[in-house]
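Figure 2 data, in text form.
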Amino acid sequence: MVYELKEFDNTFFANDLLDTILSDENWKKSQTILSELIGKSLFFANSDRFIVNENYPEFCHWLQDFPIMREKCSNCHLSSYNSQSNKPQILHCHSGLTYLTIRLSHQIVATSIPIICDDFDIDEFIKYIDEFQLPSDKGLELINKLRHKNPIKRDQLQLALNLIDSLLEPLLTKQLREGSVIKGAKSDLSHQTEKKIETVNILRPRKVEGYRAVITGIGVVSPIGIGKKAFLEGLLGSKNGVRRITSFDPSDLPSQMAGEVTDFVPSKYMDNKTLSHTARASQFAIAGTQMALEDAGLNLDEENVERIAVVIGAGTNGMEFASEQCYVYITQGRKRVSPYSGIIVFAGACSGAISMRFGFKGLSHTISTGCSSSNDAIGSAFRFIRSGEADIIITGGSDAAITPLTITAFSALRALSTRNDEPQEASRPFDKERDGFVIGEGAAIFVMEELNHALRREAHIYAEVLGYGSTNDCYHIVKPAPDGLSASRAIYLALEDAKLSPSDIEYVNAHGSSTPLNDKTETLISKMVFGKHAFSDKFAISSIKSQIGHSLGSASAMGIAATLLGMECGFLPPTINYKIFDPECDLNYIPNKPQHRKIQFFLSNSFAFTGKNSCLILGKFLDK
């Protein structure tokens, strides 16, 4: 098949296929990201002609003055067309620069201008120009102009290519299905539309440094059930825990629904003295700890309590108590304020309450990083176990912030749903009509043990904690960075820590808050990290915030608890209230009903205000 090529802004492209791609909104977004990274979007060319684009760096134009270099540049260009892979690639040219290339068909390639990446080797470059007797002073002067700019990180380039790869997959598939891409050329393009998913070798050896951390106990306090059994039943039954607020009259609030924990009786888990000195979040944490210890089968009389630590995530603590005491202060004066106010309301009270209730004398930390608190707490506990600082760590998250003040504050940010006429349908992650998150509450607490400690007592192991990564967008105090690069890097850090590849991840416990910006950005991030794998039948993503609301500091722990129970019972938790497809959220979100499937590895995402990104990877324990 011969393509009819036309010239446009020093590029060449085939009318049908490339005009379709150039007009696609997702392609435009990917090019915007590339432009921000390398200063120029991709251009199109064919194998018949090599062009040094006017946007190429001065160094490349200088090389063209030498016939031998012009020949080598041409060979680099042609290597793009000789590649048998249709996946986006990062290639090095003969001089050590980096360029990106995407083979769209047997004749058409999209490529970038050459750039300097952070792996550029200046010593090798000097040897190279000396070998071909090029004017070294001029060569070094021009290459240093590029080096003095901020070198582009290779992992950022890979994220951008993964995104383009994922965007092209459905686009080309659609065009082939509709028959609008160059008739008669199916043999040229069909290899691009096959979903080539790498085989996941889940039993391959992993080099593990330090001690290993495993989860042996789970305790849950949630709007869809208190205790592991009730929570599991709620997940399998797609139970909806969101309703109109009952703990106070919400009539004058912009958002009047929440994921409330009902039928919670704190006296089942603590004495009256403890009850009087603790806030609701601390009480949830104590209850979750007791259930997790029972689930793990730990006999504390046989354990060294100095080697048992507590690392809990809590976005807030004592909001309800603080609100009450503020009212007392205003209406009755300072002498009526509780002497325990300063103790109950600080976030650190959460871990301290657990340590004191159960007599744990190891370190006692509360991690308070907003909505990412429990992911960060579990990640910190993982590192403490790995370093040998504890044998057992009580970790996870707890939060209880359903108060008029909190809801008013989040409403002022326009972050909460106002679907007050349909409260049970208000939390709808990834649905086109989502309009904000629904506040929730609860706790998910885990017993994390050093592997050998767990094996010695023949404990049941739910999963192994494998990797943790955390970054910051440095973009906005509320909005996620639209390019998703920093959040994607957090996932890559967790993958690197776990010594896994993106194609190993079979499920993502999404942040999925049901806000318009978060959900489409998280979808974009998934495409950037996982590429075509994100569209395969080996990959799924869901958010249990659709069932329980957004419980702030405990949210990611609740999602992890749901995923661990799903792994145990062979299902993935659903995203309920998913009714209307959003073109910007086009992955498998496990709509409305659990998906019965066994997985090996999963990722937990958590993204918080002020740009925090926290990611964990867990997997079934393999004695390897």
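Caption note: The mean pLDDT is 86.
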